[in-house]
Amino acid sequence: MIQMENEHLRVIVDETDGSMQALIVKGDKYGMNWLPDQDAEPWIPAWKKWGLGFVTIQDRKYRWEKGDPVGGGSRSVEYRYRLANRGTEEEEDGEFRALTLSVLRRLEGEALEEEFIFGNAGERYMLLDEIGIYSTFYDAYPVVSGDALSRRAHMHIWTGGGVSYVKCIRMSAEKPHLAMLTVAGEVQEYQVEEKHSSNQRGVIALTGKHIRIASDKAYSVKRVFFAYADETDFHRKVTKYSGYPYLEFDLMAASVGTRVQVAVKEAGDLEKLVIGENTYRPREGEVVSFVLDKAGTIEGKVFFGGKQSAIRWYGIPAIDELMKRRAEFIVSKQQLREDGDIRNGAFLPYDREADRLIKVEDIEELYASIPDRNDARERVGMGAFLAAHCRLHPDTANREALTRYYSFIRTHIISEDYGIWDSCFRERTAKYYGETVPGTKDMTFRGFNYFFVGVFLLKMYRLTKQRMYLDDLVGVLGKYFGKFPLSDLSFGLNPREVDIALKEAGMTEEAERLACHFKDKAYAFVRMEEQYAPSEVNYEQSTVAGVVMFLLDTYRLTGDRHILEGAHKHLALLEGFDGCQPDFRMHGVGLRHWDGFWFGHYELWGDTLPHQWSTLSAYAYYRYYQITSDKTYYHKSIRSLNANLCLFREDGSADYVFIYPHKVNGRSGHAFDPISNDQDWALYYYLEIAGEA
């Protein structure tokens, strides 16, 4: 073990291979190691630890795994490596043997510098298709207890070319935070490896592409690590170390025809901005204003200090028309209409590539998770969106489809005693959870399903004003509160809206009874503080957002300041999931990284940016804005909402998510997943907010 230390940072390097084992900010009361604990996270292979990596030349991948120390002291250390084609005994070609690598780490002031120097000792130029450096911070979701969140971080990754960084936010939201910035060399992509669980982010490889090194020359990738206090401090330090300007964006996704702005807070080495076909040369303190003049991605570039880096906006097609066509698509393509099939009237997932509905019997032996592609659960979002949309935009065909859907839900999903079945196939679906004997598992076990169905019933009442929907809602919520603990993390139902609807229908006694349950649940969340019990994921954005939503809506119902004060801590936790990267898919969007596997067509793990549950954060921010009049949260809400609209196509079809990493476990990523599954919750929450904004 080799230690380096100054008044700002402490660094530990593994003397056997030169990888970095620990990076600790001095003065941090938790002494947090920002790198993964090798004992607690044994899933990280030894050859993928921090600072090891690979070079790809055509179809060959060479790794550096074991280094030799060649110098250093109390504030610096250097290792040299020989690269090898792992898993083969073949003799390396002469061109490859000419590639050398030195890794130098040194403490300089408040920063740690880390430099990878690739040398070409050959007689001709060398072309490296990829250089991948393993750069995994401690982004894993623990079973939350004690100060666990104070010892983990969310990684917000940006690979824009001329500037790239990993902005880490401590999960507990407490300062200081930590960032790593590439100041020499280019990083255009990132890859995820060893990702096999919802509770860990995987191993991250930051990847440079198409590097040419002349004979007897070298190519350097240099990174600096620094602590920061908040987002402003982060951007200023990025400018300080790289010359990249501190830019502030109002919206990165908005309707076509919207005028958006880029403010130059600090110019750094800014030369020009190129946005579409237009060039701007703003100075510090100036604002660039332009119109999103087309639908789809609008590319931009920042030129600074002889480098260039990407920016991406998104022009949203006419939103009313987009929603209208989506509603038509759901009714015409995703509602099963087959007499004799128990699912008649249900909304099912849709395979956009194959142009067909997905039925569980057709995929039983083809996917890891069948329930996440069934006839209920999150798919109820289609019914919720359609009911909300139909109230604002009456349509006879959509109304008839909703009547058919309610019949399916009432007959096959809501049980006789108001439990919510996981699927219309009821006990028979226990086999998808590993139960071999029917009847041994309670298939009304999932709290989330109660709130999803509750949302649909509430919206059907608001559409029709028929009391039967509220009778069902009262029954479902009565069953929910009798079956699940107050700390259950189900989300999506608005207590205040329930109360208003019940009182409007003259159901005052039921309203008062449920208001007591809602208040008790809110108090349980306040007492919980940050000690989240494990749910389907140990700790995640949607459950934190759900807690904030519930607390704020219950405060609006009761006026109880204790509930509002309790929401503040959870709100701070929620904001840590949001990135600030200059790409509409990431900017202000809550981080998730497992849904593509469980719900998607391609079963790809990795960062889903955007994913529809990030609109839960948007809803929470909007409610906080309503309560406090703090417009910061209004803008945060709109950013997240608008980003999710890229999932919906102008023909009415939809993609489930965008898988952002360029590779995941060796498979191609950076693409939309072509299954229409439960992304319509994004449209539902858009209507929830837009209807009040």
UniProtKB/TrEMBL annotation:
<protein>
    <recommendedName>
        <fullName>Six-hairpin glycosidase</fullName>
    </recommendedName>
</protein>
<dbReference type="GO" id="GO:0005975">
    <property type="term" value="P:carbohydrate metabolic process"/>
</dbReference>
<dbReference type="InterPro" id="IPR008928">
    <property type="entry name" value="6-hairpin_glycosidase_sf"/>
</dbReference>
